[in-house]
Design a protein that fits this description.
This protein has 644 residues and is α/β, with parallel strands linked by helices. Helices cover 57% and strands 10% of the residues. The strands form two sheets. A six-stranded mixed beta sheet has the order 5-6-4-2-7-8. A two-stranded antiparallel sheet has the order 1-3.
Length: 644
């Protein structure tokens, strides 16, 4: 799905994509001089700004803007979209996909607290405001932000876009003002100063951890590809990068002019004229809110794709706007909100959050590099280029990972634990599916042709429904789960005029909408295969009605509406009954203890996620749910002795 470029689309891209990476000047230089306990040295500042410039160039511009955005899946981005492009090449690629997705979600919980808190703390320069008051303000802002999500990212993007123009313009003006006072700072464009700092400074590891904060939003930028489009992101990045670099140069110039001083405050706010601190803080706060938005929309995209690929439990996904690229997932919204509030309460100050920030997203970037390597090698067929990409970016990111590992004990363990919990949840879901498929029993549906005829002719049974519908996991129209046949013929035999067996296959392309029909018994039993993209809302109820009405018009289904039926002009096809089989774990199984635990855990998770009826868009008034025990292995044959 290509997004057209216009003034409005560019504003939306600014409002959605660049919040995180665009607010990095709020805390990068502060974190960097904090490594030296606030003591300002020319080598530290000049080398640090040089490292920031080249990190933005190598990591953000070259890796993400130039290379990774090319790995789009029909306009969709994010690590799971990238995974769908290469997953057929090797089974092991699911590992970096799961790890990368989980760490990106974990990072989404700490980005809003650190950016909003950094912005609000600017008020301490002009107002006597304590830590408790800052915490209350931050939590209030986050509450409003998460409440706005239900209205969709389109509205948010249009609201935030113009404000981001103001924000980046402010960055440029403030930076340029200081840059003119010390033009020599432009020497930071020479990578020598950055490399020299890393080689000579005893604190180089911690400096590198601070520098990495300037590019943490690059992964969210890729995830938001489907919201804004490739061209919109690339065009706006030119403006964004210029503004960012000028501001970093300005902060560096201001600090070098105070060489030998000890500065504990945030240089971002110190370069502001005193009269501008309050309005500047307000603008910074709005930008921080937008930074949070970038991770939230990225998280929605990520989880939605994982659900459709059956890597994540099924959660309710809503589409607040007409554009399917803009989604809202209530459960993810609530969990992110709770996580953000708890992190604010735990860390309280932005400097504490910075000590934990960045570790999780470094892992995400490493996983993206692995998948990007496979994409360039296998899909683009460029072996040499893929090796260069792997070596260059793995080297850079392993260096950042090593630097960020020192943040583990300072709070980085929290995001790692969150990521591990998400990975474990996805493992339960995926492996539970593998276990069930391993032991699923299928029968040949063609063997039951006569049975369907006999069942319909059995007038002793009342008509259960005109159309009886089952969802099947079999993609072979000749095979069907034995439990479905048992439900039809043995467990309260279900006499119907038409039987429909539906399978939904999620395709690697995001917006596929196709189907095929196989007739098993003419005018009686049919198998329908839906091929739906992983971003398509699966409205099976609506789709099925449309298909059957078309089949009636084409004469494939012979149905004559009664005279008293309404909507004859719409080709009514009678009443429907959807039979959903709910699995329960039977005591009669020979699973190992671990497999039994995984299966039980998955069944428990399914109880608290969205029901199959809601997920597949089925009218709940037409649904009948039957419990089916999962019996794995042979039943024990117990011999009983009869006594009189």
């Amino acid at each position: 799905m290509k997004k057209k470029v216009s003034i409005a689309s560019l504003l939306v891209a600014l409002g959605i994509v660049y919040g995180d990476i665009g607010t990095s000047p709020l805390y990068v230089m502060k974190s960097m001089i904090g490594v030296n306990n606030g003591y300002i040295s020319k080598d530290l500042v000049l080398g640090g700004v040089s490292l920031v410039i080249w990190t933005l160039t190598l990591q953000t511009t070259i890796k993400y803007i130039m290379l990774t955005l090319e790995a789009d899946n029909n306009g969709e981005g994010g690590i799971f979209s990238l995974f769908t492009l290469v997953r057929k090449k090797a089974k092991w690629l699911i590992v970096p996909a799961l790890i990368g997705g989980a760490t990106l979600l974990a990072d989404g919980m700490i980005t809003p607290p650190v950016t909003v808190t950094s912005a609000i703390e600017g008020l301490t320069l002009v107002l006597p405001i304590d830590t408790e008051s800052i915490i209350i303000i931050v939590i209030s802002i986050l509450t409003v932000l998460f409440l706005l999500q239900r209205f969709g990212t389109d509205i948010i993007g249009k609201m935030f876009g113009p404000m981001m123009v103001v924000w980046f313009s402010m960055l440029m003006i403030l930076g340029l003002n200081e840059l003119l006072k010390y033009p020599e700072i432009i020497r930071a464009f020479n990578p020598y100063y950055g490399i020299h700092l890393l080689i000579t400074s005893p604190e180089s590891v911690y400096i590198l951890g601070a520098v990495f904060l300037c590019t943490t939003g690059a992964e969210a930028l890729y995830s938001d590809l489907g919201h804004c489009g490739k061209k919109n992101i690339r065009y706006t990045w030119v403006f964004v990068k210029i503004c960012l670099i000028i501001n970093y140069l300005g902060q560096g110039a201001w600090l070098i002019l105070r060489e030998g001083s000890v500065i504990k405050e945030n240089p971002f706010f110190l370069i502001m004229p005193s009269w501008f601190v309050i309005p500047g803080t307000i603008i910074a706060t709005i930008a921080a809110i937008i930074a949070s938005q970038a991770l939230i929309t990225g998280s929605f995209t990520l989880v939605s794709e994982a659900i459709k690929l059956n890597l994540f439990p099924k959660l309710q996904v809503r589409y607040p706007n007409d554009d399917k690229g803009k989604i809202y997932i209530p459960a993810v919204n609530y969990l992110l909100y709770i996580g953000c509030v708890l992190l604010v309460l735990k860390f309280q100050k932005s400097e504490n959050m910075e000590a934990a920030y960045g570790l999780a997203i470094t892992i995400t970037m490493l996983m993206t590099t692995l998948l990007l390597f496979e994409y360039i090698r296998c899909i683009k067929k460029k072996l040499v280029m893929s090796i260069i990409v792997l070596v260059v970016f793995m080297t850079i990111e392993l260096g950042f990972l090593y630097a960020n590992l020192f943040k583990f004990i300072n709070g980085g363990y929290i995001t790692v634990l969150i990521a591990c919990a998400i990975i474990f949840l996805m493992y339960i879901w995926i492996y539970g599916t593998i276990i069930r498929k391993r032991y699923s029993q299928y029968v040949d549906i063609l063997d039951y042709k006569d049975d369907f005829e006999s069942l319909y002719e059995d007038k002793e049974l009342p008509l259960y429904a005109t159309n009886i519908v089952y969802l099947t996991e079999s993609q072979n129209y000749e095979k069907i789960e034995s439990k479905i046949m048992y439900s039809i013929f043995n467990k309260q035999p279900k006499r119907g005029k038409y039987y429909w067996f539906i399978n939904v296959k999620v395709t690697d392309e995001p917006y596929t909408k196709a189907y095929s029909v196989k007739t098993i018994v003419p005018n009686k039993v049919f198998c329908i295969q839906f091929n739906l993209g992983f971003r398509i809302n699966q409205k099976i109820n609506v789709f099925l009605h449309q298909i059957i009405q078309e089949m009636v018009r084409e004469g494939e289904v012979k149905f004559k509406p009664k005279e008293y039926m309404l909507n004859n002009s719409r080709c009514s096809v009678g009443d429907f009954k959807f039979i959903l089989l709910k699995e329960i774990l039977s005591n009669e199984n020979d699973l190992s203890k671990w497999d039994s635990f995984v299966t039980s855990a998955k069944l428990t998770i399914k109880k608290i996620t969205v029901s199959p009826a809601k997920w597949f868009g089925i009218d709940t008034s037409n649904v009948e749910t039957e419990q089916v025990p999962i019996i794995i292995g042979e039943r024990e044959n117990i011999k009983l002795t009869r006594i009189d």
